[in-house]
Amino acid sequence: QDLKTSLVNVLLHKIPAEAGITRIEYEGPRIALYTKNPGFFELNDQIVPDLVNSMKKRIIVRTEPSILKDEEDARPIINDLIPSELGLKNLFFDGALSEVTAALEHPHLIDKLPDFKPVSILEKTGWRLILRKSSHISSSSLNTIYQTYKSSEDERRKFLSEAGEKIFRSKVSLAPEITIHTLGSFKEVGRSSMLITTPESKILLDCGIHPGGKSSQDSYPRLDWANISLDELDAVVISHAHMDHQAFLPALIKYGYDGPIYCSEPTLPLMTLLQTDFIKVASVEGRQQIYDNRDIRNEIKQTIVLPYGVVTDVSPDIKIVLNNSGHILGSSTVHLHIGDGSHNIVYTGDYKNERTMLLDSTTWSYPRVETLITESTYGAKEDIMPNRFEVEKNFVNMINSTLTSGGKVLIPVPAVGRAQEMMLVIDRYMKSGQLLESPVFIEGMISEATAIHVSYPEYLSRELRSRILSEGEDPFLSDYFTIVDHPSSRDEALIDGPAIIMATSGMLEGGPVLEYFRQIAPSEKNRMIFVSYQIPGTLGRRVLDGSSQVSLSEDGGRVKILDVNCEVNRIEGFSGHSDYDQIMRFIGKLRPKLKQVLVNHGERRKTENLANSISRMFRIPAYSPNVQESLRLL
Ligand code: ZN
Q1: What pTM did the predictor assign?
Q2: CA spacing 20 to 30 A to 118: which of 370, 471, 519, 598?
Q3: Ligand 1 centre from 205 Cα, in Å?
């Protein structure tokens, strides 16, 4: 008897007839109860949690399509029912899930409107209402996601149902055996990827590219070496939206991967944004595009977003839970629970074991963990960051000295993460008068990424969350900021006089930052401040390491030599990565549960150093494998 048949029996037993259940379907890792009476479950709101508890499966209630109102009929009803005080800006219908998302200008006012009952929308239209804060600018990647959902309802319903059949297929019981195959970002930083296999399943964790890679052999994950066919994969899990963790994913889809992708809710729009920009920049700069927009749209259809902290079946013998890793919006540690609890792996992804202005500190409490896979970007003993107060003082002083002498400050930033942290820091210090007032120019893509931050306040730090959700503020808006949304407005940023400029990419590998770099680097009165990690092999790393001349390719493929005479500084204290002490403290907290530690995502010397420190200090076996190794974990 398969799981679905036994579920039907149990559920029919437990749910009263007036619930109006018509059928039970898999919806990816969830079990969907279709009902003609969705309001019933809202009134009896203990039924579903009780079922989830007793069955240990994710269960969700969906409206039977025959009673779901057409979008054209539902739209005016919903418009009427949502109080005007909330400032409804847009409705997005997702027919595959019978959910409607309302983007609201003032969702924080909902507590002051006791008469507004979202359940009335469900009862009158069949659509379940999801509320989202709308942001000051619209995000084209969020729009792409909603449009893709809308144009692929039947396709996605079918995809989710088939994915469910696979996830809940019956187990072939074999002795538990777990192996990790390292495909990228071991003894290096970039193209993060690893394959976890059991006799039952194959799961890919991360699928990034190496931004400084010189050939495809060292730019992309070594799936060729792993020698698996893509339809053997049960799932791909993405820890966070940075390019070195996800940018190869659409290529995987182009080559035939048609199974589920799991990531946190904000990771989907952020990675869509970055991938779309990646191929746009490649085409502008005449580089080879490894995939196109169609592959990105297919990726959206195959992605199943997960909230933090929810246990989700991804194959017959593997469950995963994503938790906050404190690195960027939506960044997650991935906890894999394998077999009947026989082995637990925690993959940290990139993590920050300290709170920042933007995010809360990483989660460290895991019920069980035998194998830890930790990053080691700052894994050398000397990688200790000064305290945050010192870092900010130093940053403010550097900028002030350049602005006073009429120079410009260029801060290269990845669009996601450091950019938003720096916006908060600059705004706070200018408001307080410690940082000289000057115009701050922010390049277009950063502001779209920022808009996505505003749409997911529940993933931000406690303080920002309450400023957005309780006070209705937008903490990323500031009178000092000018958004550069067209190349022609770069001229304004570059006219004589003091200014601060934030632009992508963070490692000077393409993007608008290069325009500014060309103008700013030659003059001694200007300054560049690097606030994020620079991968060896990138232009950013060469400049940071003191190159006084660098070569830049111009339009038409000519190469130009550029003198770098400006001040170049590095400030590590704003990093979204844990420093050496923070990594060791994190491991110290997990220690009683750990059997072994694998170290990845660091330069060779740092991974080796960190593995040594861990085995000496905690007396736990710790390894730093190379790319293309297979290790038995159990
Ligand atoms: Zn990252």
Answers
A1: 0.94
A2: 471
A3: 14
